[in-house]
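Sample A.
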Amino acid sequence: MKKDQIIYDEMRSLSPYYLTLSGIYLVTVTIVCCALGGDLSLPIGAVYGIVLGALNFLLMGKSAQAAVTKQTSKSAQTYMNLMYCLRYLGLFALLTVAALVPFINLITAVIPLFFVRISIMIREILKERAKRSDKKEE
C-alpha cells in the first residue's frame, strides 16, 4: 500500500460530507451576502475557511502517519505534540491575516474549521444506523 494511501482513503470517505456541508454553507453565505448588499468579504471568508479546514485535516493525517513510523511511543508523542503546535500556530497566523485584510470576513472563515469534525460525526452516525438496520433485517 502506498505511504499516503490511508490519508487519501480517509479524505475520500469524508469528502462527500465535507463538500455537502461546504456547499450548503457557501450557498447560505452567498444569499446573506446578496441580502446585505453584496459584501463579498462573506463568501471570500467562507472559501478561505473551507480551504483552511481541508488543509488542516490533510496535515493532521500526514503528521499522524509520520508519527507511526517513529521508533518509540515517546518520540511519536513528542512529534505529534510538535506538529499539533505548528499546525495551530499556522492556523492562528492565517486567521490573523484574515482578520487584518478587509476582503476576508473572519467569522465566515472560522466556521468551516469545524466542518471536518461535523463530517466525521455525520459519517459515524450514518454508519451506526446502517449497522442497526442490517441487524434488524437478520
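Sample B.
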Amino acid sequence: MLISLTISAARLLAKFCLNLYGTFNKPYETWRRLVRESDLLQIGFFVLILWVYLSLAVVVKNGLGTGALFLTFNLNRLFNISVITFLVVTLLFWLVGTWCGGKGKLKEVASSWAFSYLSTLFWFFSTTLLYILLPPP
C-alpha cells in the first residue's frame, strides 16, 4: 500500500516537472496536453509552492524576531486569501466561458489557470531572494 502510494506520488511529481519544463521549452504542445489531461492533483504542487513562497515572504517582511503567532496569522491569512481568489477567478472564467458558448470543463480551466501562475511565482521568488541577497540601501 505504502509502496504503491509512493510510486503514484513519484509519477505525479515527474509529470508535474515535465509539464513545468515543457511550459518553457514547448509551451504550445504542453498547454494543449495540460488542458486535455487536466490532472487536478498537479494543482497541489502549486499550492505547496505558494505556501513556501508566502512563508518566505512573511518572514522577510516581518523578520524572524516577530512572534510565531503573528507570523502564522499573517501566513494563514495570505494563503487563504490566495486560494479563495484562485477558486473564485477560476469559477468566474469557467462561467463566462460557458455563457459565451464554450465547451470547456471546470477542471480544464483550473489546471491551465494554475499553470499560468508559474511565471508569477518565479518572479516573486526571484525578487524576494534578491531582496535577501542584495537588500535596498
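B remarks: The chain has a mean pLDDT of 88. The radius of gyration is 18 Å.
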